[in-house]
Write a structure and sequence with these properties.
It contains 23 helices and seven strands. The longest helix has 25 residues. The termini are far apart. The chain has 606 residues and is mostly helical.
Length: 606
């Protein structure tokens, strides 16, 4: 057997016959139908009359006209003559033998390319601070770890220093799970935390190259890696210090290692797979469950069929148990109870209406939470079946947009379905992982950042399925001499890439430029505030009381680095709770300022 071949699931079964070439009309039809429904549905949902073809042409967006032209050229490509005819070779669905050193060079080169693309994307944000509440909480966690601690004692008058997503009731600690802080800490120590996310993007591209090789073949590995390197959603989130990229690294490591474990039977791959899944669970536990569940069931079925594979299970389970023990220890350090996570503690104290499950607002009202952040907690909607269904639709729609654009994903997945009998079990497991990831997030009221961040980790899985569909179709269509149709598919992907990276407020493409602009706006606001403090706070050490803008829930300037000893500390303005005398007595020697967010005015208090 070739060194990188997947063993057949049932060697007694013959190789599957090629799909009928007439079936390849189905992807074109499904893509066209999706286009028609998407263009006409908004008018129907708004109760407006459906436009005639001429009215639609006169008012259509440039993006829609481009896609219409591409779809109309599909039948032309189908009937365009091609002289090259290759013989159908079903064994090519398995990875082929090649030199391992050459494959390693390809993997390293693609990883470097992925990192450079992420670096280039982030060059527009140079010297700007983070944008989101969550990012500052992860930075707080990383700096706490760098100090050799899991928490710091709360300062005097702790409510003044309540930072979003940071516990502050005797102990100050990030609410989030520890893996992201562990990944972030060395990059913070180096002075540029975003290096960690650019490197994570590059490593992800390299890992997806190997997963594609194991699942599809050498061409599949290359296609998967290139799709990941240029995926707008992955590029956008490589500029945000969130848990998604560390979780993706763990999940990709798990996925690739399990494939190698099944192929080789070596225990080292079981250990690496367990480490990857354990790390992902310490970053985003619900996501780790959603992605990992189909793979666990697959291993269970294989073990029941072939008991010799069970000898690898303890080596796979040991790292998972170690990760669980680490989380229990971390919980005990911060909350005092091994089964109470900082995440759950923060929700109970500050945002009880953000709890997981249906009727979250109804249940949250019954919780006695004196430290509730009213304006943030009241933002939550009560989760009903109708809202859950709407959220699922938003998440599916937006995740397809951010994967590569809706129509290219529909086309790629349709090609995979047409060649279903020839694609490997790992590719099918990727489709199952997408479904389970969506399912585990159904009982949550918020659809997510950019409407999809809870299912963000499905993006590489979509790309793997698209690569499998493209490679499987290439083998069938090339054997029938229809390379023109393959070139048309390549043209679709090239045009989609251009639209994704340039279109603003599009329907079918990723709103990439808009996403970057939103990040830049928030990061610029944070930068301007810090520059204002540096230039206008002339008497230090100082304490700046911030009066928030009630209309803005998503930009909060109360951010400090642990321990709270910096020359300028930022606190909340709570005149109804603490007088100026109380503040000055608790923080003697600090000059007190007040900053009004709505007017952007800074004044020194007497």
């Amino acid at each position: 057997m070739p060194h990188n071949s997947l063993p057949p699931d049932n060697p007694a079964l013959p190789d599957p016959p090629p799909p009928a070439r007439g079936l390849f009309w189905i992807p074109w039809l499904l893509t066209g139908l999706t286009f028609v429904i998407g263009e006409l549905a908004p008018a129907s949902l708004l109760g407006e009359s459906v436009p005639t073809p001429l009215e639609w042409l006169l008012s259509a967006r440039t993006e829609s006209l481009v896609w219409l032209a591409l779809l109309l050229t599909g039948p032309i490509a189908w009937y365009w003559p091609s002289s090259t005819v290759a013989r159908w070779n079903p064994s090519r669905r398995m990875p082929q033998e090649d030199r391992p050193s050459r494959a390693w060079l390809w993997g390293l080169g693609l990883a470097l390319a992925g990192m450079l693309v992420a670096f280039q994307t982030g060059s527009r944000f140079r010297n700007l601070p983070p944008a989101l509440h969550d990012e500052f909480s992860y930075l707080f966690q990383a700096r706490t770890f760098l100090a050799g601690r899991t928490w710091f004692s709360s300062p005097p008058l702790p409510e003044l220093f309540d930072q979003m997503h940071v516990l502050n009731d005797g102990k100050m600690a990030s609410r989030y799970f520890p893996a992201t802080g562990v990944w972030l800490a060395p990059w913070v120590a180096l002075g540029n935390p975003w290096l960690g996310w650019w490197c994570a993007q590059g490593l992800l591209v390299g890992l997806m190259f190997w997963i594609g090789r194991e699942s599809i073949g050498p061409r599949g590995g290359l296609a998967t890696a290139l799709l990941c390197a240029l995926c707008p959603g992955l590029l956008l989130f490589s500029q945000l210090l969130l848990a998604h990229h560390p979780a993706l690294l763990g999940l990709a490591l798990m996925q690739g290692a399990l494939l190698c474990m099944v192929r080789t039977g070596l225990r080292r791959w079981a250990i690496i797979g367990g480490l990857g899944l354990g790390f992902a669970a310490l970053a985003r536990p619900m996501t780790a469950v959603g992605i990992g569940l189909p793979w666990g069931l697959w291993l269970l079925v294989r073990g029941l069929r072939n008991r010799t594979e069970m000898r690898l299970w303890p080596w796979l389970a040991a790292p998972l148990l170690a990760a669980g023990a680490a989380q229990l220890w971390y919980d005990t350090q911060i909350t005092g109870h091994p089964w109470t996570t900082p995440y759950g503690e923060y929700t109970a104290r500050h945002t009880p209406r953000h709890v997981y499950g249906f009727d979250n607002v109804v249940r949250g009202r019954e919780v006695d939470a004196p430290r509730r952040i009213a304006r943030y907690d009241d933002w939550a909607e009560n989760l009903t079946p109708q809202l859950a269904l709407r959220n699922v639709a938003y998440r599916v729609f937006s995740s397809l947009q951010w994967t590569w654009g809706i129509l290219p994903v529909v086309l790629g997945v349709s090609l995979a379905l047409v060649t279903w009998r020839t694609i490997s079990i790992p590719v099918r497991l990727s489709l199952a992982s997408i479904a389970t990831l969506h399912l585990v997030h159904v009982p949550y009221w918020y659809d997510g950042i950019y409407h999809f961040h809870y299912v963000f980790e499905s993006l590489p899985q979509w790309l793997l399925v698209m690569a499998a569909g493209g490679c499987g179709s290439e083998r069938v269509l090339a054997s029938g001499g229809q390379r023109s149709l393959l070139r048309w598919v390549g043209l679709v992907m090239a045009v989609a890439l251009g639209l994704n990276l340039t279109t603003s407020q599009g329907l079918w493409s990723a709103p990439f430029t808009d996403g970057l602009s939103q990040i830049e706006f928030a990061r610029t606001r944070q930068h301007e505030f810090r520059q204002l403090l540096q230039t206008q706070v002339t008497e230090t050490p100082a304490l700046v009381l911030v009066t928030p803008d009630p209309s803005d829930l998503h930009i909060d300037f109360v951010v400090n680095s642990p321990p709270l000893v910096a020359p300028i500390l930022v606190a909340r303005d709570l005149p109804e709770r603490y007088s100026l005398d109380q503040i000055q007595n608790s923080w003697p020697g600090r000059t007190v300022y007040r900053y009004m967010v709505s007017t952007r005015r800074l004044e020194r208090l007497p």
